[in-house]
Amino acid sequence: MTAHALDVTTASRAQHVQKIVTPAGLTVWLVESYAVPLIAMEFALRGGASQDPIDRPGAATLLAGMLDEGAGPLDARSFHRAIEDQAIHLGFGADRDSISGHLQTLSRNADQAFQLLKLALTQARLEADDVARVRSQLVAELKRDANDPEAMAAKAFREAAFPNHAYGRPVRGDLATIDRLTREDIIAMRERLFSTKDLKIGVVGAIDAETLALKIDDIFASFSKTNDLISIPSTQVANIGQYKTINIDVPQSVIRFGRPGVTKNDPDYFGVVVANHILGGGTFTARLFREVREKRGMAYSVYSQLNEYDQCPMFIGAAATKNERAKEALKVIEEEVRRFADTGPSEEELDKAKKYLIGSYALRFDTSTKIASQLVNLQLDGFEPSYLDQRNDKIAAVDLEICQRSAKKLLGDGGLLVTVAGDPVGL
Amino acid sequence: MSAPLLATQPSLTPGDANSAARPGGAVSHATLDNGLEVVVIPDTRTPVVTHMIWYKNGSADDPLGKSGIAHFLEHLMFKGTKKHPQGEFSNLVAELGGQENAFTSYDYTAYFQRIGKEHLGALMAFEADRMCNLLLTDEVVAPERDVVLEERRMRTDSDPAAQLDEAVQAALFAHHPYGTPIIGWNHEIENLGRQDALDYYNRFYTPENAILIVAGDVEAEDVLKSAQETYGKIPARAESPQRRRTQEPPHRAHRLVTLLDEKVEQPAHERVFKVPSYRTAQPGEAEALEILAHMLGGGPTSVLYETLVVDQKIAVSAGAYYAGSALDDTRFWIFATPAPDVNLENLDQAMDGVIKNFIEHSIDLERLQRTKTRLIADAIYAQDSQASLARWYGESLATGLSIADVQAWPSRMEAVTPQDVHTAAKNWLDKRRAVTGFLLPEATN
C-alpha cells in the first residue's frame, strides 16, 4: 500500500511534495497518495478580516459564509443538496489575515466537487434573502458570546492590545454595526480579495499532478491577477503593564495575558518556540501547568502560545480560576513569566522540550486534511517544501544559550497586558 | 484530561462493508487469558500509532452520592504509581514526541496516546502498570479536586446554556444515572476523597473490564505479543464487574424546563426524547433513528433547517442529533435558535408542526437516499484518521456492541426502509413523554 508520503519520518518529507506550476501559472503543492480513495484540498487567499471596511467589521466573515449559499444555476437549497448528494465536505472561513477554503471528496466524486467549488468561488449568487439568513446566524453567534466570559476577556484584550488598528476589531463583526453589512459590501470584498496573487493551495490524495493542474486552472484561472488590499501597518501589543477587568456575574474569572512576540524571520524564532513550549506550551509538562494547575489546583486550563498575525507577532496565554483565587493565580503566572525570562530553562527542560517538539512533528501529518493545511501554512509563511526537512534541525540547534536569550527576547521584563472577565476578588 | 460532558460529535459510525471502504480494513480481535480484549486496526500510511485503553465504566456507574467519581479518577490516573511516580509517564510520552489525554463519558472512561510506532511497547508497559498500581496521597488528591471544580465552573457554572442542558437531562432521566452530569454535582465533588477514588478504581480497573485498541502501522501479532508481556501479566479477577444501574420508569408527562438568566442575550430551544440506543433497540430501530436524526436535522439540507430557517424564517438555526452509542436507553435531540422577535412558544409550535408533518406524510425518498449517501461516505472519510477509527471501535465495544456490529453498520444503514424511518418517528418523537428546554433572558420589569 502506498505510504502517506509525509508521514515517513525516516526519509525526506519534502521529496514527497510535488510543487506544480499549472499552465496558467498557478502554484500548487501536491502530495499524491492513493491509500484512501479521498482527495483533500485546502487553500488560502491573503486578506481576511483585517481588510474589512473600518465601519463594517465582519465583511470578510460574511463573504466566506455566503460562498456556499447558492451559485451559478443553483440556488442555496439546490447547492447544499448537490453537496450532500455527492457527500462532499466544502467550507470557507475568514481569519485575521486570510480567507480559507476546505474541500474534501471521495475521489469518485472529484469532478463534481471541483465543479461546485468553482461555482462557489466564481459565481456565488449572494442573494439578499440568503445574505439576511447568514447574517442572522452571525448575529446569534455574537449574542451567544456577548456575556461569555472567555469571549469577553478576549475582546477586552484585543481592544486594549490594538487601539486604532485593524487587529483590534472583531473578526466576526459587531452587534452594533453588523446590520449595516449588505450584499454590496460582500461583492466589494470579493472584488478586492479574490485574486491569483497570494493564492496558496495544498492538495493531498488520489490525484496526479497533470489532472490536478487542469482542475486548478479551471477553478481559479478566471481570478484577477492582482488584489486590492489596504496595507496593514505592523504593530505590537500595546498597554503592557495594564490590567483591565470586565465585571460579570460568574463564579470564575477568565484571565487573558500577553505581550509582543517575535517574528518568524527572527534568527532566534526557534529558540522562542522552544522557550514558549517550556513555559506554557507543553500539555502536562509546562511550568505554568505544573505551578498553576498541578501544584495549586487553581485552574483546569492554563497555557501560553505564540500567535503570529501577519503584522504582529504575539505571546498570549489564558487561565480560568474561581473569583476568590484570581489574584493569586495571576500572581503565580506573572512570577513564572518573570522567573523564566530571567533564568531561562534548565538543561534538562530544554532537552525534553526539544525531544517533544522534534518527535511530535510527525503527528501533524497523519491525516490528509492536516497535511494539506500544513502545505498551505508553509506557503503563507513563505517557505519552500524543504522546510519540512529543515524544521527539526532548527529545533535541534537550539542550545541553552540560545534558549535563554530567546526567553529574554520574548518575555523581556515580564510585563504583560492582562484582561480579566468575571468577578475577581481584589483585582 | 478533558471530559466531554456531552458526546456532541456525531456518533462514530463505521464504514461501508459493501464497498472497498471497510473502515480500518482487516481489524483483528483477541482476548487475553486475563480477559483483556485486544483490537488492532491497521493504518499503514503512517509510522504513528494510536494506543487507547478503554474501561467499561463511566459516570453512570458512579455510586449513589458519589457523582463525579469516574471523572475524578480519570484525573487522578495521572498521579503516578509505586514504580513510576507522578509525572514520569507524562514526561516519557512527551520525551518520545507523543501526545496523550483521557476522557470520561456516561458509559466509559478512556486513556490514549499518539506516538511513533516504535514506542508502543513502552507505553503499554506504563499503561498496564497504571491499570493495577495506582498510588494516591491526600496531597495530590486535594488540589486535583480543586482542578475538577474549576473545570465545572468553566464548562457549566459560568454558562447558562450548559446549565439548561444539565437541567433538561436531569428531567429526562429522573431515575437513571444519565440524569446526573458526567462531571458530577458540585456538593458531591467537594466531598470526593482518596478512598472513594481507590474503591472505584479497585472495582472497575481490571483486565476483564478493559479494551485495548491499537491503530496504526503495526502487525496484529506483534501487538498481541507486547500486550501479553505487559497487560497479560496482570492477574485476572475472575469476573467482570457488574454495572448496576437503576432503570427509568415509563414516562407519561411532558416536562418544560425553563432557565432564565440575565446573561442570556440569545434565547434557545431544545427538546429531548428518551429513545433506545444501538444496544437496547430492536433490530433496525437504532439505524432508523440515526437516519431520522440526519433527515430531520443534519445540516442545511435537513427538514428542520429547510422548513424553520429557510422557508418560515422563524429560526436562524435548527438541527437534530441521536446519541445512539449508549449502554441504556438514550437521547434524541431536536433544537433551534429563534429568529429575532420570535418567541419560544411560537418556535415550539412550529417544531411540532414539522414533526407532525413528517409523520403524516410519506417519506421523501430523495432525502432518504441523500442521507444514506452522506452517512455511508462519512465512514470512508473516517478511514483518513486512525484516531477516529480507534475511537469509533472503542466507543462501540464499550457500549455493548461487537466488531461485527461495527463492520456491518453501513449495510444495516443501507437496509433501512422508508417504513422504518416513518415508524421510528411515529414511535419515538412523542412530545407527551419528552422534555422541552427554554433558554431565556431574565424578565426585566
List keywords for this structure.
heterodimer, A: 427 residues, alpha+beta, six-stranded mixed sheet, 11 strands, disordered N terminus, B: 445 residues, 15 helices, 18% strand
Can you lay out the helices and strands and say which pair or pack?
The complex is a heterodimer of chains A (427) and B (445).
Chain A (H helix, E strand, L loop, with lengths): L17 E4 L5 E6 L5 E9 L12 H8 L9 H10 L3 E6 L3 E9 L3 H14 L4 H19 L2 H13 L21 H11 L5 E7 L3 H12 L22 E5 L4 E9 L8 H13 L5 H9 L6 E8 L2 E11 L3 H18 L3 H13 L8 H13 L6 H10 L3 H12 L5 E6 L5
Parallel strand pairs in A: 2-6, 7-11
Antiparallel strand pairs in A: 1-2, 3-5, 3-6, 4-5, 8-10, 8-11, 9-10
Helix pairs in contact in A: 1-6, 3-7, 8-11, 8-14, 9-10, 10-14, 11-13
Chain B lengths: L27 E4 L5 E6 L5 E8 L13 H8 L11 H8 L3 E6 L4 E8 L3 H13 L5 H20 L2 H13 L13 H4 L4 H11 L5 E7 L3 H10 L25 E7 L6 E8 L9 H13 L5 H9 L3 E8 L7 E9 L5 H17 L4 H18 L3 H13 L4 H12 L3 H11 L6 E7 L4
Helix pairs in contact in B: 1-7, 3-8, 9-15, 10-11
How would you characterize this protein structure?
The complex is a heterodimer of chains A (427) and B (445). Chain A has 427 residues and is α+β, with helices and mostly antiparallel strands. Helices cover 41% and strands 19% of the residues of chain A. In chain A, the strands form 2 sheets. Chain A has a 6-stranded mixed sheet, sandwiched between helices. Chain A has a 5-stranded mixed sheet with strand order 7-11-8-10-9, sandwiched between helices. In chain A, strand 1 and strand 2 (27-32) form a beta hairpin. The longest helix of chain A has 19 residues, at 128-146. Chain B is α+β, with helices and mostly antiparallel strands and 445 residues long. Helices cover 40% and strands 18% of the residues of chain B. Chain B is built from 15 helices and 11 strands. Chain B has helices spanning 69-76, 88-95, 120-132, 138-157, 160-172, 186-189, 194-204, 220-229, 285-297, 303-311, 344-360, 365-382, 386-398, 403-414, 418-428; strands spanning 28-31, 37-42, 48-55, 99-104, 109-116, 210-216, 255-261, 268-275, 315-322, 330-338, 435-441. Chain B has a 6-stranded mixed sheet, with helices on both faces. In chain B, a hairpin with a 7-residue loop joins strand 9 (315-322) and strand 10. The radius of gyration of chain B is 23 Å and the shape is globular. At the A-B interface, helix 2, helix 4, helix 9, strand 10 and helix 11 of A face helix 2, strand 4, strand 5, helix 4 and helix 10 of B.
